[in-house]
What we know:
Layout: E1 2-4, E2 19-20, E3 23-24, H1 29-39, E4 59-66, E5 73-79, H2 92-113, E6 120-126, E7 141-149, E8 152-156
Parallel strand pairs: 5-6
Antiparallel strand pairs: 1-4, 2-3, 4-5, 6-7, 7-8
Amino acid sequence: MTCHLEDISTRADNGTDRPWNGLMCRLNAMSVAVLLVALQPQQLAAENLLPVPSGQPVELSNVLLDTNPGELWVRFRFVAPKIGSNAGQITYDIAVVDMAHLCEVLAVPYVARHELDPARVVISFSDRALDFGVSSPDATQFFEAYRLEQSECVWEGF
């Protein structure tokens, strides 16, 4: 079961709580916006760009709660239009530092705020907006997985 941030409603039409596989998806777009503003209010650009060590433009696309791997994975999906392997683009070696940074400053507080206990946190960058699970041969995508230990992101190679 994958809960998409923009599709989540915490109440069914009859007013009762709506659990997914024992997990209450209590997230909504407003809570992400509030969390982002609380994290770095003076640094967020009008276009919702997030500050990262490389200085590249990075925007949060969505947050997914995914139990398809058999355990909870929280996926933070970002659009980072300058990533790629061509000259002048942000390569994986640079982007991986940005992904680790976003895990620490965005994912850790988000997971704590929503009282989640994920087995993994995945940070992904794509050079364009893509639907989850859809591949595009022309798109560049980078992924990193982390486990959270004592409010720190510990890299987990795929």
